[in-house]
Amino acid sequence: MDDESAAAFHSSRDEWERRFILIPRIGLKVSRHGMRQRMIWPGYYMVRWSRTYRRNVYRRR
């Protein structure tokens, strides 16, 4: 895949963005040990869309 076709798959959802989570939920959480399904507690998180898992991925700010 060359750079021109790779740029076609780029989306603003793929960028990390800051969000405040108010209601606890279960989601994919990234840590230094990998990505696991964990409880996402209220607070600020960096969130991005995962094209592989087709859901949001969370990490602490």
Describe how the helices and strands are arranged.
Elements: H1 3-8, E1 17-21, E2 25-31, E3 34-40, E4 43-50, E5 55-60
Parallel strand pairs: 2-5
Antiparallel strand pairs: 1-4, 2-3, 4-5
- Given helix and strand content, the structural type is mainly beta
Q: What is the mean predicted local confidence, pLDDT? A: 86
Uncertain parts: none
The ordered H/E elements are HEEEEE
Count of DSSP strands: 5
Distance between the termini: 33 Å
Q: In angstroms, what is the radius of gyration? A: 13 Å
Specify the biggest β-sheet. Answer: 5 strands, mixed
Question: Which strand order spans the largest sheet, edge to edge or round the barrel?
Answer: 1-4-5-2-3
Question: How does the overall form come out from the CA principal axes?
Answer: globular
Compute the number of helices.
1
Portion in strands: over 45%
- Helix content class: under 10%
Characteristic terms for this protein:
61 residues, mainly beta, 1 helix, 5 strands, 10% helix
Notes on the structure:
The protein is mostly beta strands and 61 residues long. Helices cover 10% and strands 54% of the residues. Strand 2 (25-31) and strand 3 (34-40) form a beta hairpin. The radius of gyration is 13 Å and the shape is globular. The termini are far apart.
